[in-house]
Amino acid sequence: MLATTIGFSKKSLRTFASALQENNVGRLIDIRLQNTSQLAGFSKKDDLEYILELLNIEYLHELSLAPTESLMKAVKQKEIAWGEFEKTFLDLLQERKVETHMSEWLGDKVPCFLCSEEKPHHCHRKLVVEYLREFDPRIEIVHL
């Protein structure tokens, strides 16, 4: 079972859309806390939904997979280290019992978890898919 992730930063719309199509993504799960910022470019909610509709990709905005605003602020302003962010965020996912929605997200279509970070190394999308894989080891993670 394939689960992909992607960040929109430093990607053109063409590169972004091609990556989704080449990996047969059928459901994009937006796990950003804020998805309407002018800084989001083509990934602003309404524009993104339209693009995905043209590509025949389902769109979900899933706030249960997003960090809290205070946690995001703390890590971005370097008030906490990445390790502390990681532990706190994983605790939050466990507290929210996000694994109970896995079949909805991973079900019948190849999912792609969207965030803004260019690379997954210090991004919560990586933590989300690794957390979900703990509940289903068949999940193969591919970062686009």
Automatic annotation (TrEMBL):
Protein name: DUF488 domain-containing protein
Superkingdom per UniProt: Bacteria
InterPro entries reported for this sequence: DUF488
Pfam families assigned: DUF488
Species in which this protein is naturally found: Brevibacillus fluminis
